[in-house]
Amino acid sequence: MPSVGRGISPQSVVCAANEQIFCELAGEATILNLKNGVYYGLDRVGTRIWTLLQQARRVQEIRDALLEEYEVTVERCERDLLALLEQLSAEGLIEIRDESAA
Q: What is the pTM of this model?
């Protein structure tokens, strides 16, 4: 069951919501939220994050994967990742699961 109104932390377990359709083209993603009919676009890094969200993972696992693939500081990576996840959550595109779910 998704959590509502709770902040996302590095220990949170997150995954893509079921009621969406995802299409990748030339390294960028388009997501259709089936609940509200709104399309969302992601750049290459956002698309990589979205790919990682296709199965439930702890935020810190996603952060660590990004740190291996991109030249970025831990602080910046975590801050930007959490900001994106908060936006995706606000739009109903991801679920935040119980921290013991992973």
A: 0.86
